[in-house]
Amino acid sequence: MKINREGKSKVLDTNELDLLLNYLPTNKHKLVAQVLRKTACRVSECLQLRYENVTKEAIFFPKRITKAKLKARYVPISPDFYNQIMQFKQDEELLNGQILDANCYLFTGRYGTNTHLSVRAFQKALKAACIKGGIVGFSSHGFRRSSLTSASNNNIPIRHLAQISGHSNMQVLQEYLDCSESQLRKAVQNFG
Predict the structure, then answer these.
(1) What are the tens digits of pLDDT across the range 25-35?
(2) Mean of all residue pLDDT scores within the chain
(3) What per-residue string of b and e applies to 158-171 under the rule 16 or more CB within 10 Å gives b?
(4) How many Cα atoms within 13 Å fall on the side-chain side of residue 93?
């Protein structure tokens, strides 16, 4: 568990993630959380996404926004999630009175479409939501850990998870995956 910026972020189950989403202050923060949850990306990658990076089939993470800027990757998305993103775009255009072109950031900052929401601003909103929801030890990186752990628990091959998450080292990816107390108990019951 992460406490005072030390340790790993807590892994949340689907119900806990849904609860947390309800406590985020704006639709922008909620959609950031959904992108983090549905793509297992890093918060800095999410916040640097532009509308040109979103297609009906996938979200594309160009290498210039990925960690260490080594390689690009794409993550398939559902048609419903694509529609949710496009609805958010329409709502933002109505709210701000301007058309958002393909080069605009998905999550604009307070200084207009040429800046993106800062990591710190999202983390501040997330921290407040965690307090309201009574969730201790969760950070923005917890979305990544929760997504990858959930997929692993549903028997998605680790190679597929590595391609989605952008990990080239399987050992690093395995450190993201969490084991529940019940999983450990079940494993011990199978000892010879």
Answers:
(1) 999 999 999 99
(2) 89
(3) eeebbebbbbeeee
(4) 13
Sequence-distant (6+) residues with CB within 8 A of 137 are 1, 2, 3, 7, 9, 10
Taking alpha carbons only, the member of 84, 66, 81 closest to residue 163 is 66
Residue with tokens 């969490």, as numbered in its chain:
178
Kindly state which CATH superfamily the domain 14-189 is placed in: Intergrase catalytic core (1.10.443.10)
Question: CA of 72: how far to CAs of 59, 60, 68, in Å?
Answer: 11, 8, 11
pTM across the whole model: 0.88
Q: For residue 173, count other CB atoms closer than 10 A to its CB.
A: 19
What three-state secondary structure class fits 5?
Answer: coil
